């Protein structure tokens, strides 16, 4: 159980010419289900294939073709719902959303308007130590993705690729609980993290596998609290929807410029029109997608090709029993069991692979030390080469071996970094490397004493100075470390130098 | 409920069906008749009756998650009025 308590972050205030304004943001996140085949056909979902090669007759909307649902996609939606602590609706149904666009051959998208498969849930969005926003999820429904239109291959024609047509999406709809651009980005990052832990979506934003429509409105300070009390939207301003964003940076920029645009309109005595807008990152502005307005009459109706989707509670329970430990729980456990700081625990649990790697290293060892090595040495080194943890040439057993050598006193922390570098670039067993290359720390006081005697004998002038100024003992320690190739135990050297110099 | 010719024209446009001006009054009348019939059905008391979605007790058919289809670019494009380099080519549509 989580026994952490959080404070809600302060909403972002934007100063207008006349008043201060606050932001209210809600998001619709489209997450592509990580399935092999599409939602209603057996065509592949693989990215980057030859155009129109991953298309079945169902996807191309050939007459007489009927959709048959992919059970795996349903399972992933349920799994996602359970991961967001949401209610699962045992009966849901599919509706047709009608509009015409070249990349939608059916002339409608199959979606779930009236009875979505997942109901209300929540996501805890952390914004620093002890500060978090609880964002309520309104619903998750399953729907088909559209194809892709390419506009820059010919001056007069658009080219259409239906490979993505019919791929399963989960649309995750939040309540307007997000209050700043930073929170919006953190919300997406948290959702992405949970989806990746669950394995229901790969979260690849660059390929468009995770993208968001962002609803933005402005209100005067105090109005939002009235909305939260009453859930009455009339306390909030008119919202605009910024479509299809797949970059966290652009999402933040778009919210900022859209809020400023709305403030300028309202302060000039005008009113904001509810509409769909597009963010243009080159110009740094949002503009109206007027063509979408007319088509907004989607004339939803139940899809007569599909019976209601009935699932059994026992199946839902089975899926629930197979859920992995989720980020919040994992982080809390890392803090409690390994004594990690909040920050370190966040870094290590960001990706499920990193968390697993750390646990393998920390098993039976000092947790804090393991965290330091994984974060500072390994992550730092991987980052230099733009690699992620799955590409690490150092296994948890190897890194653990290095830590064991330090713990046993065989090598110093400084030498350990050299060993790490050798293991990273050449591989091998750390203990063997230390043995073969003679990197073991010298703790034998006899050998250290001999080295100290040599340095003292060779530098009588320095010895005289050191007797006047005890700080110069450090110089002797340095010389001895140099003479022993850095392998002498620094603590032993210090003690012996002091004793021999009579300090 | 009665549908005027403007509404009939809008519905036709949304459905991308071309209807000549002089045919609109007849179309509007047809729509009104259909809606009147639905109004009549609305008089039946169905309080507490579950909506019937199928005449036989059937469960929505499911499919396993396997790639069993696709790989036929040529067939998919064979009915297209214009296709280039594996794509459907359509008059330019830009947001």
Automatic annotation (TrEMBL), chain B:
Its EC number is 6.3.5.-. Heterotrimer of A, B and C subunits. It comes from Salipiger profundus. GO terms for biological process: glutaminyl-tRNAGln biosynthesis via transamidation; regulation of translational fidelity; translation. It catalyses: L-glutamyl-tRNA(Gln) + L-glutamine + ATP + H2O = L-glutaminyl-tRNA(Gln) + L-glutamate + ADP + phosphate + H(+); L-aspartyl-tRNA(Asn) + L-glutamine + ATP + H2O = L-asparaginyl-tRNA(Asn) + L-glutamate + ADP + phosphate + 2 H(+). GO terms for molecular function: asparaginyl-tRNA synthase (glutamine-hydrolyzing) activity; ATP binding; glutaminyl-tRNA synthase (glutamine-hydrolyzing) activity; transferase activity. HAMAP family: GatC. NCBIfam families: gatC (TIGR00135). This is Aspartyl/glutamyl-tRNA(Asn/Gln) amidotransferase subunit C.
């Amino acid at each position: 159980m989580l026994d952490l308590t959080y404070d809600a972050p302060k909403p972002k205030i934007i100063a207008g010419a006349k008043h201060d304004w606050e932001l209210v943001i809600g998001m619709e996140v489209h997450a592509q289900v990580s399935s092999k085949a599409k939602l209603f056909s057996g065509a592949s979902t693989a990215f980057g294939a030859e155009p129109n090669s991953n298309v079945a007759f169902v996807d191309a909307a050939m007459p007489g073709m009927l959709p048959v649902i992919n059970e795996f996609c349903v399972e992933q939606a349920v799994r996602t719902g359970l991961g967001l602590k949401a209610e699962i609706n045992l009966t849901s149904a599919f509706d047709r959303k009608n509009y015409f666009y070249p990349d939608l051959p059916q002339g409608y998208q199959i979606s779930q308007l009236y009875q979505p498969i997942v109901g209300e849930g929540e996501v805890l969005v952390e914004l620093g130590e002890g500060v978090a926003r609880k964002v309520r999820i309104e619903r998750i429904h399953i729907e088909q993705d559209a194809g892709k239109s390419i506009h820059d291959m010919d001056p007069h024609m658009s080219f259409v690729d239906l490979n993505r047509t019919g791929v399963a999406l989960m649309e995750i709809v939040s309540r307007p609980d997000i209050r700043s651009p930073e929170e919006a980005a953190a919300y997406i990052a948290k959702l992405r993290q949970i989806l990746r832990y669950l394995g229901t979506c790969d979260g690849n934003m660059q390929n468009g596998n995770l993208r968001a429509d962002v609803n933005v409105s402005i209100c005067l300070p105090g109005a939002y609290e009235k909305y939260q009390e009453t859930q009455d939207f009339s306390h909030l301003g008119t919202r605009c929807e910024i479509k299809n964003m797949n970059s966290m940076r652009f999402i933040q920029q778009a919210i900022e410029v859209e809020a400023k645009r709305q403030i300028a309109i309202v302060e000039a005595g005008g009113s904001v029109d509810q509409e769909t807008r597009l963010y243009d990152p080159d110009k740094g502005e949002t503009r109206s997608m007027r063509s979408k307005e007319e088509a907004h009459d989607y004339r939803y109706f139940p899809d007569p090709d599909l019976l209601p989707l009935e699932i059994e509670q026992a199946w839902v329970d089975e899926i629930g029993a197979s859920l992995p430990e989720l980020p919040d729980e994992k982080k809390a456990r890392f803090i409690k069991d390994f004594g990690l700081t909040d920050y370190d625990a966040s870094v290590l649990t960001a990706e499920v692979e990193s968390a697993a790697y750390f646990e393998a290293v920390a098993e039976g060892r000092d947790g804090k030390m393991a965290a330091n090595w994984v974060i500072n040495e390994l992550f730092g080194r991987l980052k230099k080469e733009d690699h992620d943890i799955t590409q690490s040439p150092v296994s948890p057993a190897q890194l653990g071996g290095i830590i064991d050598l330090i713990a046993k006193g065989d090598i110093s922390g400084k030498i350990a970094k050299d060993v790490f570098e050798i293991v990273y670039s050449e591989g091998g067993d750390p203990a063997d490397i230390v043995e073969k290359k003679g990197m073991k720390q010298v703790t034998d006081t006899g050998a250290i004493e001999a080295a100290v005697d040599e340095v003292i004998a060779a530098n009588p002038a320095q010895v005289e100075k050191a007797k006047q100024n005890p700080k110069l003992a450090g110089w002797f320690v340095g010389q001895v470390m140099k003479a022993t190739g850095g392998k002498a135990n620094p603590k032993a050297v210090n003690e012996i130098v002091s004793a021999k110099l009579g300090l | 409920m009665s549908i005027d010719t403007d509404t009939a024209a809008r519905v036709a446009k949304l459905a991308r069906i071309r209807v000549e001006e002089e045919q609109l009054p007849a179309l509007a009348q047809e729509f009104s008749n259909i809606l009147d019939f639905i109004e009549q059905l609305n008089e039946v008391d169905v309080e507490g009756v579950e909506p019937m979605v199928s005449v036989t007790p059937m469960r929505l058919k499911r499919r396993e998650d396997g790639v069993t289809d696709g790989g036929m670019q040529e067939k998919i494009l064979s009915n297209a009025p214009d296709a280039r380099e594996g794509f459907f080519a359509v008059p330019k549509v830009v947001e």
